[in-house]
């Protein structure tokens, strides 16, 4: 049975377990114990992440092929939207502080590290100075195993591309020359300002078992998105195959239904669930879609995903049951931050394996 000692635990549950920030070791689930004694020293306000490589752990539990060699994460740390303004007046969404010592993007990077994904690219553009500084300093001493890294790719201009990134799809397309440096099999596309705890290995396992071209993670939990215009809505069948991708508007309410209650929808054969904006896509599929089928697409969800569906590609939904907050308003951010600090009851427990110096 895996041990449970942690360097830092942020409680979102009613158990009232105190936050432990003094422990001298922490554990990677299913992998083992890491003693912080010999880890690089960083300033106290910067978290650092540590993970073992295969030479340091007896009997490691790894997927075939190993996830840390076959999957790379693409994290979007910012956006041009002003829904969290004035918090984003001088910094991007991913750089907004939460739980005192952390930034929103740390939760997503922590999920990657603890899912054994050690190739992490952070694409940044708007108000990115604070975020770029945080990522480069906080994770520069991280032990991410052989060929592991957290690399910032800032928006750039070139003779071929004289404008800035025009959207998520455009950003990925223009960075493919960097993203294809390693022979990974899949790319995991992630928003960098959402708050949740997820084992991405389960998403990868489902994706490979179902032989999908694209897997979209959707919220099947208690989090409500009925009042959120602009959220992506997936129409899925009883096999969790995505039939349609659309954006919720103010004029068209969506009758969401969890997978177990499909009959609540107007059409009993389908369910409508909110997309979390998380995409696992085969490398060859992504390159083909971005360069050949939709070379001018700007947005990954509304253009590339819809385009993949129109081409008849196999797009599946992975249903996530846990807590998820996508920070679509100042109120949502405030509530999440207060719950994190005061350990109020939300039915959610977030664990960050990002040790802080005592």
- How many extended strands? 15
- Percent of residues in beta strands: 15-25%
Molecular shape: globular
The CATH architecture of the domain at 67-218 and 275-295 and 316-341 is Alpha-Beta Complex
Number of helices: 9
Element order, helices and strands?
A: EEEHEEEHEHEHHEHEEEEHHEHE
Distance between the termini: 28 Å
The Rg value, from CA coordinates, equals 20 Å
Task: Kindly name the structural category.
Answer: alpha/beta
State the CATH class of the domain at 67-218 and 275-295 and 316-341.
Alpha Beta
Query: Biggest sheet, in brief?
Result: 9 strands, mixed
**Low-confidence parts:** 1-63, 258-266, 344-349, 353-358
Helix fraction, binned, reads: 10-25%
Q: For this structure, what is the CATH homologous superfamily of the domain at 67-218 and 275-295 and 316-341?
A: Spore Coat Polysaccharide Biosynthesis Protein SpsA, Chain A
Per the CATH scheme, the topology name of the domain at 67-218 and 275-295 and 316-341 is Spore Coat Polysaccharide Biosynthesis Protein SpsA, Chain A
Mean pLDDT: 74
Descriptive labels:
alpha/beta, 358 residues, globular, Spore Coat Polysaccharide Biosynthesis Protein SpsA, Chain A, two-stranded antiparallel ribbon, 23% helix, disordered C terminus, nine-stranded mixed β-sheet, 15 strands
């Amino acid at each position: 049975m895996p041990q449970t000692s942690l360097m830092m635990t942020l409680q979102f549950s009613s158990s009232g377990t105190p936050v432990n920030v003094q422990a001298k070791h922490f554990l990677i689930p299913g992998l083992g114990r890491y003693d912080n004694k010999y880890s690089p020293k960083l300033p106290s306000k910067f978290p650092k992440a540590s993970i073992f490589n295969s030479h340091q752990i007896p009997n490691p539990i790894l997927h075939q092929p190993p996830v840390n060699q076959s999957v790379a994460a693409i994290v979007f740390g910012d956006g041009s939207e002003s829904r969290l303004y004035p918090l984003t007046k001088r910094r991007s969404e991913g750089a907004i502080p939460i739980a005192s010592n952390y930034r929103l993007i740390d939760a997503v990077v922590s999920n990657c590290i603890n899912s054994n994904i050690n190739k992490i690219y952070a694409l940044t553009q708007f108000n990115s100075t604070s975020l770029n500084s945080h990522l480069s300093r906080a994770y520069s001493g991280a032990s991410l195993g052989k060929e592991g890294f957290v690399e910032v790719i800032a928006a750039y201009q070139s003779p071929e591309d004289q404008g800035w990134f025009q959207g998520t799809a455009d950003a990925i397309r223009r960075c493919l020359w960097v993203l294809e440096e390693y022979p990974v099999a899949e790319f995991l596309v992630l928003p960098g300002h959402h708050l949740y705890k997820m084992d991405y290995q389960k998403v990868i396992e489902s994706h490979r078992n179902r032989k999908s071209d694209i897997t979209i993670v959707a919220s099947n939990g208690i989090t409500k998105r009925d009042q959120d215009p602009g959220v992506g809505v997936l129409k899925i069948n009883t096999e969790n195959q995505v039939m349609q991708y659309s954006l919720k508007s103010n004029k068209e309410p969506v009758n969401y239904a969890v997978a177990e209650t499909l009959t609540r929808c107007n059409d009993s054969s389908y369910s409508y669930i909110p997309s979390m904006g998380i995409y696992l896509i085969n490398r060859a599929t992504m390159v083909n879609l971005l360069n050949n089928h939709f070379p001018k697409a700007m947005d990954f969800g509304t253009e590339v995903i819809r385009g993949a569906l129109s081409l008849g590609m196999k797009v599946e939904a992975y249903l996530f049951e846990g807590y998820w907050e996508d920070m679509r308003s100042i109120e949502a951010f405030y509530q999440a931050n207060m719950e994190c600090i005061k350990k109020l009851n939300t039915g959610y427990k977030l664990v960050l394996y990002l040790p802080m110096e005592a």
